[in-house]
Amino acid sequence: MIVLKLLGITLLFVAVFIYDFSSVEPNKKKERAAIAVITFTGWVVAVMLLFAPGLPGPTEWINQVTKPIWVIFYPEG
């Protein structure tokens, strides 16, 4: 069952990648690279959540990273 889900996620991301990548002009290399990196990152997060559904979401990761900064600005709470 997980193999089918992985295949579905992969096919979905490939379809999104092909659609987005083909809509950008070939001479815009940086935009194409950005599309590739963002799509690949999204695929990695989706696969990680498929195999370990208890992982915290991306917003919780950002909260953990920025928590020390918020303590400096708001020491009372």
Automatic annotation (TrEMBL):
Source species, domain of life: Bacteria
Protein's recorded name: Uncharacterized protein
Membrane-crossing segments per the record: 6-22, 34-52
Entry keyword set: Membrane, Transmembrane, Transmembrane helix
